[in-house]
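Re: weekly structure request thread

Next one in the queue (398 aa):
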Amino acid sequence: MDDSGAGTSLDDLPLWLARASLDGSPVDAIMAGFMERLNALGFGVGRAYLGVRLLNPLIRAEGYIYERQAGAVIHERYEHASMPPGYQRSPIHHMLTAGIDQLYRPLQGPEAQLDFDILKDFAARGYSAWAAYLIPFTLLPTAMPDEPLGFIVTLCCDLPEGWSQQHQVAFERLLPHLSAAIQGRVFATLAQDLLATYLGQDAALRVLQGTTTRGDMRSLRAAILYADLRGFTQRGETLDPAALLTSLDRHLELVVTPIETNGGQVLKFMGDGLLAVFPTNPATDAEAARAAYQAAIEALRSNAALAIEHPHAMPVDIALHIGDVLYGNVGGTSRLDFTVIGPAVNAGARMVQKGKELGVPLVMSQEMTRHLDGVGPRSLGSHALRGLTGARELFTSP
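Done, posted below.
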């Protein structure tokens, strides 16, 4: 794909954008190439910003900033709790909350309209005009009308005379083509973020790569971590729903964080518990077992610290096992779940219940402990597990 703007006409830009999109060009390259081509045609875009709302539990939005003098695009991501300073007083926030899809402001001379602080900053930098355009995703509605899913594009003019009416009409005609060129990339990001949020990173990747048929499963050897909160049902009878949900999130976060830090994958939340795996490929059985054990110890320590600060904190019970499982799609014809099944999973679930009966927060199988050299696990004796044949020796931490 030719990245120069030489020889480009205004009518060539939609085709160039379509080809850039089909070529899989990244967003920053498409934006830089588009602005350079506009400037080669005399549009005088000194600065441009493209912002898009994401569907991500950590990242609220991302932005791309083009500066003509720098000749580069800066990529920014904004967390939910840390939007840029002054955002609530910005023209973008004003447009979103007021339902305005276009805004134009001259920045110099007697007609200057500097009704937002950021416009004063742009005027001081010598820009002559500012324009903004909101381009919604019409195929992806949102339940938040003041934060529609789509693009916000702002432009700063470095032509002394500002933009003509013809320039503004051209922007209105061309910016939807820019949106269409970038939407594929953004939708892919939205899909990956959503699937990773609800399925986990590995399961999300497998679904996006085509593992979408019922019964499509593969064998996986992994260390298995089952965690369950003790006393959650009783707590639910005394706490109001909002406080109960807050408490549940606080407790689960203390288990999820060490799992992910130690290389595990949370596959499923089950009410007041969760199931996680630590795959043995490319790790060895011993490496996966040690990672799962370390995650369990860190989770138990964090929960103990929480209990000191909050007397009504709930104890967490954890079971560790290692074995072969089936990993993939189960469910109805058109409603599937990506999960793990098999005897090793069943054993882990029964072990965490046995731990509650024995009053110990951590229960491990013999298969698990044989990979934990130097830990010195303490035997809990042999026990029958409900629904499973035979008795098996169980262990806990020293």
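The domain at 213-396 is CATH 3.30.70.1230 (Alpha-Beta Plaits). The mean pLDDT is 87.
Next request, please.
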